[in-house]
Amino acid sequence: MTPALFQIVPTTQAPPGAPPAHELGGWWLCAQTVDGRLLGAVHGLPEQGRSRARCSFHLGRVVHSAPELGLHQVQTTLQLGHDATGEAELSGLYLAVDRMNPMDAGDATTPAAVADALLQAACTRLAEAETPASWVVVELPGWRDAAGRSPFWDGLVRHFLPPGSLDAADAAARHGPAFSTHLGDMLPRQLIHAAFLSPAAQQALGRCADSHTVWLAALQRAGFADWRHGRIEDGGPLLAAPRRAWARLP
Amino acid sequence: MTPFDHLPTDLLLRPVAASDLDALQGLAAAAGPGIGSLPDDRAGLARRIEQSLQAFATEDDDTSGEERYLFVLQSSASASGPGSGTGARTANLLGCAGIAARAGYGSRFYSYRNEFIVASSAALGLTQRTHTLHLCHDLTGSTLLTSFYIVPGAPAAAAHLLSRGRLLFLALYAQRFSDRIVVEFPGLLDAGGASPFWDAVGRRFFGMDYPQAEALAGGRSKAFIAHLMPQSPLYVPLLPEAAQSAIGQLHPDGELPFQILIDEGFDADTYIDIFDGGPSAEGRLQALASVRAARPLQQAATQSCLACTRQRDGFRARLVAAGDSAADLGQQPLATPLQVMEAA
């Protein structure tokens, strides 16, 4: 039997070092070693969208077909909306990787193990919560290049802002998670065909940041799947799983 | 010095005749891109002539909106004589111009409509105005001026006769047409003949070159486009700069006919062609300068005029110098001053 090298501890306070929760309310779960060192954390929210509008791009498909001409085009589309409103959410995903040894597969405190344990505990809590939510949704930050630039921002978002008016990193730091709500006010309400985006922006759509690949893998192991939505600021993927999947049998 | 100081009074605008097929094909072959409604296709041109003959022959009570009229401009020296407006055997045609009674007849006529949306965020302290293009059928049912072509080097007055002569025909037989008149002008092409607008928009949905798609559209109703073009607005800032710059821009070949109709009172700010982004202009028939200034020739005899017969089948129009009674145009010709801006 694997010794209990860390434990999951609930708290209402954001642990030091963790990114902010996307909304007010909810709870935190922290993975701590027996001597109290923080290894990771996750924030759970039974029902999102109650304190602010939560925007995302729904990634759909439309088929442009003219059989008499032998033409058939399948196009990916983006539709700004608030589809995740009312669903449960996990955010504030945090792993203190500098306190773990990711290379030692025999060590139970690997990032993957900590992430797995946090997700299992958080999803179980959400499954038992009194909430109308059908899904547990997780936003992951979108891919950035080596210079830290988001091709999705450059290929879509910046075109709808006054030139030179906004630095994405500064604005995100100043406004926190609410930045995406404010940004949603500036972006198109009508359907966008992805074909009009630059190739780099199209490739970034739904692609997770390198910094979160451990979480992406853990979410997939936990049963989360692509929800066909993207973050509006960087095109990062939204993943979802049925909330009741973790409900304990009576 | 004006384009009308040396009046080419030997030019005659008349309905196309069956005997014009060879000369008309010569015009179609000489025309470059942007005259897609008159392709160099002998069988197609023969059909256009037949349609036009039927249109001119149709009695007012029998019109449906399907009528397509085609006029040709010739030197009177090549006509077979006064009163034989459709009888030229080897006409030396200088140009052609058409009218489709109802754009998109029996189907839909597609355009992009320019619109602007304004987004604002108080929290970010930002406001932004964004140019959008909306696929629409607004111009369906309007009367469409089509197929304008004039040979290079023809005097400017000839272009006025060819373009504005149609407006007098519309005024004389207004009950056959919409009071909303529309004309599409050729859009900008690059040095290689490619359309930047098409490459950025249409190609993504058609997967073929502009001339190929234009040929497809020219040979059938444009309604099939609806199956392949986005129904949602296009956000112009997402297009490449070359495509943005081409929106509403005119091919140099279209400058003279464009300016003639803008001077008439057409507005070209609202709609563009869905293929090449060229401007589509619209005007109200009764508000057009030539129509407002139209009067019996006797009342306009002190000015150089564009005058026409009042006959539908056998319609003719020509330029008339001041003091010319234009007896060849029959009883009480209708005339409008050549200097429309002054007259209006």
Description:
The complex is a heterodimer of chains A (250) and B (344). By secondary structure, chain A is α+β, with helices and mostly antiparallel strands. Chain A is 21% helix and 28% strand. Chain A contains six helices and ten strands, in the order ββββββαβαααβααββ. In chain A, β2 and β3 (38-45) form a beta hairpin. The relative contact order of chain A is 0.19. The mean pLDDT of chain A is 92. With 344 residues, chain B is α+β, with helices and mostly antiparallel strands. Helices cover 25% and strands 24% of the residues of chain B. Chain B contains ten helices and 14 strands. Chain B has helices at residues 21-30, 42-57, 156-172, 196-200, 202-206, 210-218, 241-246, 255-264, 289-292, 340-343; strands at 11-15, 68-75, 93-100, 111-121, 126-136, 143-150, 180-184, 234-235, 267-272, 279-284, 295-296, 305-308, 317-320, 334-337. In chain B, strands 1-2-3-6-7-10-9-4-5-8 form a ten-stranded mixed sheet, with helices on both faces. Mean pLDDT of chain B is 87; it is low at 79-90. The chains are: A alpha+beta (250), B alpha+beta (344).
List keywords for this structure.
heterodimer, A: 250 residues, 10-stranded mixed sheet, B: 344 residues, alpha+beta, 4-stranded antiparallel sheet, 14 strands, 25% helix, globular
What is the averaged pLDDT score of chain A? 92
Q: What is the oligomeric state here?
A: heterodimer
How far is the N terminus from the C terminus of chain B?
A: 20 Å
The number of distinct β-strands of chain A equals 10
Structural class by helix and strand composition of chain B: alpha+beta
Number of spatially distinct domains of chain B: 1
Order of H and E elements of chain A: EEEEEEHEHHHEHHEE
The helix content of chain B is: 25-40%
Tally of contiguous helical segments of chain B:
10
- For the record, give the distance between the C-alpha atoms at the N and C termini of chain A, rounded to a whole number: 27 Å
Strand order of the largest sheet of chain A: 1-2-3-6-7-10-9-4-5-8
The largest interface is: A-B, 33 and 29 residues
Overall shape of chain A: it is: globular
Global geometry of chain B: globular
Number of domains of chain A: 1
Number of helices of chain A: 6
Low-confidence stretches of chain A: none
